[in-house]
Task: structure prediction
Amino acid sequence: MSKRPFYVHPSSEVHPGASVGDGTKVWHFCHVMDGASLGRDCVIGQNVFVAKGVVVGDRVKIQNNVSLYDGVVLEDDVFCGPSCVFTNVKNPRAHVSRKNEYGKTVVKKGATIGANSTIVCGVALGRYSFIGAGSVVTREVPDHALVLGSPARVAGWMCSCGERLRFAGKKTVCNRCGAKFSKTKAGVKGEA
Result:
């Protein structure tokens, strides 16, 4: 199988110690630091910063003006909307070094983060969760949850295809793709 080279726009800087997967595109005015890892077939939009230690899975789309700081992990198929924000320290002060206190933020497979959302460090966003535009996430988000607001609260449930799920009881079928789901005490799970 032949390798497909990655692409880096001439206005961007990818340090030699960064890892960039086959088929990934890094667009205008981006900065990818030594020690960062970008997976295969990703799209890195304009003006994106990727810090040392950040791990980005395969087929991730990061829209314009997003900064990924040390401690952020994006699993496969994650979508980061324009200008969404990740933090890495809960109580920053300019005059106090807290580099040894960076919080880890894990965005699990297939999650979507809407434009202008803020993800406070130290949380995990569940598989196929959906963070509505402008939301402020301050705690864990369950798999398939739709969260909205500031602070973000569960407002519904989403299919892995991106369609909102409608429950009349404890089970439902996605109107778009036909996937089956059931409600549990922990949230929603897909059925085989």
Summary: The mean pLDDT is 96.
